[in-house]
Amino acid sequence: MKARWAWAMVFAAAVLGTGMLTAPVAGASGPSSVVVPESHSAAVNGAKVVSGVPGGSTIEFDVGLALSDPAGAAALATAVSDPSSPSYGHYLTAAQWEATYSPSQSSVDAVTSWLRQQGMTVEGVTADRMTVSVSATAAQIERAFATTLNEYAVHGQTLRLAANDLSVPADLAGIVTGFNGIDEIPNTPADTTGADSATPTTNGGATPGTIPYPPAFRNPRVCSKYYGAKVDTTDPAYGGGYPANLPYTVCGYTPEQFESAYGLTSQYANGDNGSGVTVAIVDAYASPSLLSDAQTYYSRVDPSNPLTSSQFSESVSPTFNRVGLCGASGWFGEQTLDVEAVHAMAPGANILFVGTKNCFNSLFRGVQQVVDDHSAEVVTDSWGDNAGDVLDSSGIQHMFDNVLMMAAGTGISVLFSSGDFGDEFATTGLTSADYPPSSPWATAVGGTSLEVGPKGSRLGELGWSTSKSDLCTTAFVGVLTGCTSALVGTYLPPAPGVFDYGSGGGTSYRYLEPAYQSAVVPADLADRNIGVTGHAGRVEPDVSMDADPQTGMLVGETQLFPHGPAYAQYKIGGTSLASPLLAGVLAVVDQVRGSAVGFVNPALYDLATTPNAFFDVVPASSPQALSRVDFANTLNKSNGLLVSVRTLTYEGPETYCDATNNCSTQNVALSTAPGYDSMTGLGTPGPDFVTDLAAG
Predict the structure, then answer these.
(1) pLDDT category of residue 461 using cuts at 50, 70 and 90
(2) Which residue from 243, 411, 448, 662 puts its CA 20 to 30 A from 280's CA?
(3) How many CB atoms lie within 10 A of CB 304?
(4) Strand partners, 642
(5) N- to C-terminal Cα separation, the chain
(6) CB-hemisphere CA count at 13 Å for 456?
(7) What is the dihedral sign for C-alpha 539, 46, 419, 589?
């Protein structure tokens, strides 16, 4: 129970703050300084100090500035996004929004002047004046903000974190809202292949084209072209009430299968394919073959819908850093999936790829760049902070929520994958939603296991939550954990196995329940944390699409094979698939509407009871699972084949063990149910989703 106690302390520190600046205190930043509350990560609570941070090390970070009229910005975002409001769809331009709600130039000048006085370098100010980008040494940060920086052991990583909340001069108390980048909370891509991503040993810098391709990953062709096409009749029965002969996992759905299953074929026949709409994709780093890979893929898989060079543009950082801690080349598969999935659902849309400098604060700024420039109508983000609703500082959340409110006020849809580790208990020891998807100003996209039939119809759809068991075979005695001669022919662990991954979601500890959810989300979900917070909370995800790697998408990407880089196709999943799929659907909605749907959550919940708008994802009528076969070496069968069983819509026990092997177990907190549920939200797009949403 030690793990539970430690995280209870995190909740006390991170959730029960007042959100107000404290009284003036004495500190390194001066005798009349004030603490910016919750301006450091709660991950520091209970974490072990590994070492101090060298005073001369350079740190890049952002300082957030308060809006001039935050209440007005929220009111505008609400009014223009509510289908029942007379202001619905009456968006401001970026320039109009900035003139009305952005921080004043005098506020920017006050902050930048003080930062320079501390010896720090002001790298720039965003066009919306909400964010000041800074570089400074660790010693300068510690002295200016009255804190101590240490390296801490956090969930298997060594991360730089501030030991306490940061302080600023009293005359900046009403201006500075938070900091992003001083604490290292890496954003992780929400994709799942089963392969290991390459992680460079260096943590330094790189330029586009110099990061090596990721190690090759291939799927053996022991799989199904459509759901249930092939059945495993050779391996032992799984037991536990599951069918004796399990279907094999799919080989990877193609764009045509997704289009058909989600009812877009008739839209395309009418010429509605996202034409005239731009979808922005924000990821860390950039694969040098991103466009050519997608073009090769579509020439082979869906030649009737090529991705033309005129449809694709990039805005890529000229330099990269933190390549080791971020696992830079592992982001290439994420980018590949995002581009190819958006085009699958909206073959006529334009795609803007934004490749940021690293997987920290630069990802947030990548979204901010798109919003400031209004360079897209839809933004998809397949990344987020695990358990970030609690572990991210409220300062980071305040900073980025302002960007999301600007997006809503100017008519931009911003989507985030809900995450790939369910309720996050198995990864962090606490039950928490991820951030940014937990923000009430973001659209959180959860995941399902999609069952596509032989003619492209949707046979069914279940909530994505997977447990796993490996088959012990003679070839893997002593190699596979727990596999002995006596256990050959059995599954380890026995059915239903152990929780592996699943659609993210949960009830926020930080955010109140938004008005658009109050009449739809069951009270037991909204009130899940009321004993800690005292109020009903925001629940996510909002909506879902296919994400299960067992029913994932076939993609094409250049990877590093023993003979060198080469293009290859493989299957991938995760809510990183769900978010760009939905982004493509929204591009079609925007085209049908003739205008941007913008912040879509109020309109989605307004359709909650409309027949055929959503496919309601409900529990399976009987236990279901799939048989999966992988190359042991990820490339070919020379080292044997690994056989496993992956269950569908798992809701059983999950376990968290800390660094000292203290373990706690609870049942998976997310589940499916009729109507809104905590695993899939409102459900998935139904047959009338596009027309109903466009008509709102």
Answers:
(1) very high
(2) 448
(3) 9
(4) 630
(5) 50
(6) 12
(7) positive
Backbone torsion region of residue 181, taken as left when φ is above 0, otherwise alpha when ψ lies between -120 and 50, otherwise beta: left
Among the listed residues 367, 425, 424, 418, the one whose alpha carbon sits nearest the alpha carbon of residue 396:
367
Q: Are 181 and 61 in contact (CB under 8 A)?
A: yes
The answer to whether the pTM exceeds 0.70 is yes
Q: For residue 255, give the DSSP letter.
A: H
Give the 3-state secondary structure percentages of the chain, helix then strand then coil, rounded to 5: 30, 30, 45
Task: Extract the tokens encoding 16.
Answer: 């029960």
Chain centroid, CA 116 distance in Å: 35
Contacts of 170 (CB under 8 A, 6+ apart): 24, 32, 33, 34
pLDDT at 396 over 70: yes
Q: Are 527 and 536 in contact (CB under 8 A)?
A: yes
Q: Read off the amino acid at residue 311.
A: Q
Residues 540/433, Cβ–Cβ less than 8 Å: yes
Q: Is the pLDDT of residue 18 over 50?
A: no
Are 239 and 587 within 8 A, CB to CB? Answer: no
142 residue type, one letter: E
Tokens matching residue 363: 């990802």
* Residue labelled with tokens 């954003």: 187
Q: Is the pLDDT of residue 681 over 70?
A: yes
Confidence of residue 24 (pLDDT cuts 50, 70, 90): very low
CA 319 – CA 316 distance, rounded (Å) = 8
Using only C-alpha atoms, the chain has a radius of gyration, in whole angstroms, of 24
Structure-token pair, residue 273? 């394919």
